[in-house]
């Protein structure tokens, strides 16, 4: 299981680097288009504005993906930490198994959200406002799961001290 976690960590780190490059490229395109906007006639300005709006929506979607990837990496780090503790301390094993299941469930939720977000972003019929609403709903679901796991963390920290 630890090898699988390491592979996922590596994959999501590469994916995060790729998304960062895409974000940087889009930021450069938006900046270039904004400078071109100043030197253009009205007809060309309209086209450039539409292009800027499209790029800004794509940029926002990439930031949403990046946020999910960072959350996935955080959960993978938690799982990796729990696995290491499990291997080193038998007493910790019994207190951390429930936490490990919670972290794995949260990781699966994040991965499913990222997959759905990617599918929606790359489908030709999706609308930007619909994508943003769906993402906000997913974030709210994730926050509910996070709030449900906090008592487990508090118990664990009390046991360690």
Topology:
Blueprint: H1 2-38, H2 42-88, H3 90-122, H4 128-160
Helix pairs in contact: 1-2, 2-3, 3-4
Task: Walk me through the structure.
The chain is mainly alpha-helical. The protein has four helices and no strands. It has helices at 2-38, 42-88, 90-122, 128-160. Helix 2 (42-88) runs antiparallel to helix 3. 14% of the residues are buried.
Q: Total domains, how many? A: 1
Helix content: over 70%
Low-confidence runs: none
Choose one word for the global shape. elongated
Average pLDDT score: 76
Helix and strand sequence: HHHH
Sheet/helix structural class: mainly alpha
Q: Helix tally?
A: 4
How far apart, in Å, are the first and last alpha carbons? 28 Å
* Biggest pleated sheet: none
Radius of gyration: 21 Å
Q: How many strands in all?
A: 0
Tell me the fraction of residues in β-strands, as a range.
under 5%
Provide a quick synopsis of the model.
With 161 residues, the chain is mainly alpha-helical. The protein has helices spanning 2-38, 42-88, 90-122, 128-160. The mean pLDDT is 76.
Give keywords.
161 residues; mainly alpha; 4 helices; 93% helix; 0% strand; elongated
């Amino acid at each position: 299981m630890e090898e699988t976690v390491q592979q996922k960590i590596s994959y999501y780190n590469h994916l995060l680097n790729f998304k960062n490059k895409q974000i940087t490229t889009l930021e450069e395109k938006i900046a270039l288009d904004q400078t071109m906007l100043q030197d253009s006639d009205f007809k060309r300005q309209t086209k450039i504005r539409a292009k800027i709006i499209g790029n800004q929506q794509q940029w926002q979607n990439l930031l949403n993906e990046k946020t999910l990837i960072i959350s996935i990496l955080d959960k993978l780090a938690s799982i990796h930490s729990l696995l290491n503790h499990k291997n080193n301390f038998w007493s910790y094993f019994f207190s951390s198994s429930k936490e490990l299941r919670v972290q794995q469930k949260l990781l699966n939720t994040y991965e499913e959200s990222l997959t759905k977000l990617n599918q929606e972003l790359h489908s030709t019929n999706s609308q930007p406002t619909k994508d943003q609403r769906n993402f906000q709903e997913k974030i709210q679901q994730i926050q509910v799961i996070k709030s449900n796991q906090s008592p487990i963390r508090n118990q664990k920290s009390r046991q360690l001290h």
